[in-house]
């Protein structure tokens, strides 16, 4: 299914070139036809080469005459606004693709930095082990994340209105101290979360034990 | 919408009904047609002109060597003047050289783009595979509860402190050339260097103080007390997050030593502290 990639350069081999010309010319005419039909717009194509006795005109000389007349009726500025030749066309494509590529590179870096951030949080690595050149990118990702967190917190706090008090109550009781005193132990964020869970489980069992003792 | 279309589908060769789709189709197909025309010229050295009118009556055209030249020939059916022939040949050669270079450049950019696309796919796949349900903070923000969000925020703030600290330590060594700003430039965690590599002089003062402090006091960061306590505002100041607070309690948010080997982001960097480094 994968074709051989064609190098975008003049084909040196005569017969190859001629064969390619014939195929591609037909292809272009077909595409032009589809465009004109599907969109109901006037389209005119002229293709000329050493391999043709006379230039190929599509759809026909008469139709092309009409298109050209319509074209010539337009003020020069309108005609040239979107006019392209090889040079301008290729330059346009180059700048567009460079732009898209840059955006993608940026996104990839952000994704990478996000992984680093997650690794730090789960204890797999630490900031001291981050590449110096990545520290900044990582910092930016953290900033962006914090921004989004704050925004989300605002939204939830606003929406919850009446019920927010109960949410907060639950947060303070179940999550106990960590929000304020997270620095007390030397553990990663992820370990701290797990400690909380263990703590809350323990609290429940202790309560259970107390009840048992009372029976005795 | 009845069913999601599975990839390309055969379409009828009649004028499209939906206006919006028609416009989109026009854009895409016109672009594709021009691409094919350009390729034909490059590969086979043909001369071509394509004139297309948009649904909005605007005109698009592509021509090689240029639109007017080929149109004129069509209209007048006049062969070029013999005297002009050599001049035309020269300018044509020059033109071809330029186009050749442009094509090479385009090929190069397209290849780089393909590489980035692949990398993008890999990264997304990696994230999908590494997903661990117990690490709830890795889930999209929308799925977190308010209490989770608050905890997460705290954890991230602490992380930001360490990262900022690391950056401050290394500022003298390297000035990062590439910038990828996830957020607005105002919120840059490291305000020292802007996009053009200029150093902000006011921040130089902080940097200087930092260096002085580091040199004056013991290198063991557990005991460092910075005389100038620069509080970090959480607003949009350019110094946000830049000057970290050093406490006696360096153990604010540390990372398990035993897990560090799992993910070595910077293998050349020697581990600096024994335990409880943050």
UniProtKB/TrEMBL annotation, chain A:
GO molecular function, one term: protein dimerization activity
Compartments reported by the entry: Nucleus
Residue span(s) of domain MADS-box: 1-47
Main localization category: nucleus
Pfam (any one): SRF-TF
Any one biological process term the GO annotation gives: positive regulation of transcription by RNA polymerase II
Gene Ontology CC: nucleus
S-adenosyl-L-methionine found in the keyword field: no
Keyword presence, Transferase: no
Domain of life from the UniProt record: Eukaryota
Keywords per UniProt: DNA-binding, Nucleus, Transcription, Transcription regulation
CDD domains (alphabetical): MADS_SRF_like
PANTHER family in the record: MADS BOX PROTEIN, MADS-BOX PROTEIN AGL35
Protein name from the UniProt record: Agamous-like MADS-box protein AGL80
Originating organism: Raphanus sativus
Gene name as annotated: LOC108809810
From TrEMBL, chain B:
Classification via Pfam families: SRF-TF
Subcellular location per the Swiss-Prot or TrEMBL entry: Nucleus
Organism domain of life: Eukaryota
PANTHER family per record: GENOME ASSEMBLY, CHROMOSOME: A05 (PTHR11945:SF584), MADS BOX PROTEIN (PTHR11945)
MADS-box domain location: 6-66
Signal sequence interval, chain numbering: none
Entry's Gene Ontology BP terms: positive regulation of transcription by RNA polymerase II
UniProt main location, coarse: nucleus
Name used for this protein in its record: Agamous-like MADS-box protein AGL62
């Amino acid at each position: 299914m994968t074709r051989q990639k064609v190098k975008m350069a003049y084909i040196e081999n005569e017969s190859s070139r001629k064969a390619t010309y014939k195929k591609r010319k037909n292809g272009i005419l077909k595409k032009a036809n589809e465009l004109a039909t599907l969109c109901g717009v006037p389209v005119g194509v002229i293709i000329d080469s050493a391999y043709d006795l006379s230039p190929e005109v599509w759809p026909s000389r008469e139709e092309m005459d009409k298109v050209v007349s319509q074209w010539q009726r337009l003020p020069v500025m309108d005609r040239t606004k979107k006019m392209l030749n090889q040079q301008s066309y290729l330059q346009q494509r180059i700048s567009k693709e460079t732009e898209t590529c840059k955006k993608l590179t940026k996104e990839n870096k952000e994704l990478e930095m996000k992984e680093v951030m997650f690794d730090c949080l789960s204890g797999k690595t630490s900031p001291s082990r981050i590449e110096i050149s990545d520290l900044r990118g990582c910092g930016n990702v953290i900033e962006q994340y914090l921004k989004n967190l704050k925004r989300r917190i605002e939204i939830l706090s606003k929406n919850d209105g009446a019920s927010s008090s109960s949410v907060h109550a639950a947060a303070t009781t179940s999550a106990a101290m960590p929000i304020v005193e997270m620095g007390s132990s030397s553990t990663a964020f992820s370990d701290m979360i797990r400690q909380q869970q263990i703590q809350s489980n323990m609290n429940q069992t202790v309560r259970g034990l107390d009840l048992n003792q009372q029976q005795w | 919408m009845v069913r999601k279309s599975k990839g390309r589908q055969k379409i009828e060769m009649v004028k499209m009904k939906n206006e919006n789709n028609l416009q989109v189709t026009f854009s895409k197909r016109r672009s594709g047609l021009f691409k094919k025309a350009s390729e034909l010229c490059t590969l086979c050295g043909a001369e071509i002109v394509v004139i297309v009118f948009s649904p909005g009556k605007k005109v698009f055209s592509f021509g090689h060597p240029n639109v007017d030249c080929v149109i004129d020939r069509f209209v007048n059916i006049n062969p070029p003047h013999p005297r002009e022939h050599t001049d035309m040949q020269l300018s044509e050669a020059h033109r071809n050289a330029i186009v050749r270079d442009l094509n090479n450049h385009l090929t190069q950019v397209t290849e780089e783009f393909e590489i980035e696309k692949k990398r993008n796919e890999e990264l997304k796949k990696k994230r999908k595979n590494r997903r661990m349900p117990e690490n709830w903070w890795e889930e999209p923000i929308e799925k977190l509860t308010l209490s989770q969000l608050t905890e997460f925020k705290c954890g991230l703030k602490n992380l930001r402190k360490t990262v900022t600290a690391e950056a401050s330590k290394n500022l003298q060594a390297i000035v990062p050339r590439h910038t990828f700003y996830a957020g607005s430039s105002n919120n840059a965690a490291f305000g020292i260097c802007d996009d053009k590599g200029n150093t902000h002089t006011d921040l130089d003062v902080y940097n200087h103080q930092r260096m002085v402090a580091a040199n004056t006091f013991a290198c063991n960061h557990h005991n460092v007390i910075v005389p100038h306590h620069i509080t970090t505002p959480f607003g949009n100041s350019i110094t946000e997050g830049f000057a970290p607070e050093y406490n006696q309690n360096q153990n604010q948010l540390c990372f398990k030593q035993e897990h560090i080997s799992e993910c070595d982001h910077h293998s050349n960097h020697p581990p600096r502290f024994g335990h409880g480094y943050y």
